[in-house]
Amino acid sequence: MLLHSNIIGEGQPFVILHGFLGMSDNWKTLGNRFAEHFQVHLVDQRNHGRSFHDDNFYYEALAEDLKHYFEQHNIKNAIVLGHSMGGKTAMLFATLYPELVSKLIVADISPRFYPVHHDAILEGLNSLDFDVLKSRGQADKQLANYVSDFGTRQFLLKNLYWIGKGKLALRINLDVLTENVSDVGEALPLHAKFDGDTLFLRGDKSEYIGNQDETLIKNHFPQAIIATISNAGHWLHAENPEDFYNAVTNFVN
Questions:
Q1: Nearest-CA neighbor of 81 among 19, 6, 5, 21?
Q2: Per the residue annotation, which of 41, 220, 234, 237 is the catalytic one?
Q3: Contacts (Cβ under 8 Å, ≥6 apart) of 4
Q4: What whole-number distance in Å separates Cα of residue 136 and Cα of residue 155?
């Protein structure tokens, strides 16, 4: 089973991995900019976007999916960028297959363990009854009972699509993601290490990477640079795309 992707541009492969409950489309705008210099692969991870659904959902499986994707597309010497959950996949992949990764970029996630914190979001998504809800507006109104932030709801509702005439559905495999949500917070294995060029980017309004994480990051990624994107929270690439783009391009060049 091969991961779905959107491939744009030419040059060195540049693989981008979205976060939990996201999809490759979240990266389309920045992907197009990176594609002016690279062959960009916007990838949907399993149980997300247009990729296959599977009952297994843990980082070793996500990393193996990416390995198969590299093999199918004959990708070597790639820049790999991952945000949040995608950052954890990218970290593990780089430590397992360092020969395939020229540079690693991790957006707003540390190698450490994170407790479950998506409860309200998953409860809200599970409350969407598409036998009753017939429009995106109605779905948004229902989701607002669980998720107050408008921007977060719009991000989540990107998963909506028309499965048939007048019938909405979610692209994500919600049952499996709900059941395995605790695995999303799993720490990178203790002895996992990548000695290549690595950039960690954090939002200045985000708490995902704190000062206490720096030693841990350096233990796993000795060459790591840790930089902060101003005026940005966890979705730093969407909240301050200009500074994010500049930080990434300066690093890869």
A1: 19
A2: 234
A3: 24, 43, 44, 49, 50, 51, 52
A4: 12
For residues 16 and 81, the answer to whether their CB atoms sit within 8 Å is yes
Per-10-residue mean pLDDT of the chain, 253 residues long, equals 97 98 96 98 98 98 98 97 98 98 98 94 97 95 95 94 93 97 96 98 96 97 98 95 98 96
Cα 204–chain centre separation: 19
Task: Show the tokens assigned to 237.
Answer: 């690439």
pLDDT for the residue 200: 98
Annotated catalytic residue within 5, 84, 110, 206:
84
pLDDT, residue 86, reads: 98
Task: State the Cα–Cα distance between residues 209 and 201, nearest whole angstrom.
Answer: 9
Distance CA 203, CA 180 (A): 26
Residues 6+ apart with CB under 8 A from 28: 6, 42
Return the number of other C-beta atoms located less than 10 Å from residue 94's C-beta: 26
Told to judge if 175 belongs to the known catalytic residues of this protein, a careful annotator would answer yes
Q: Which of 54, 55, 119, 175 is catalytic?
A: 175
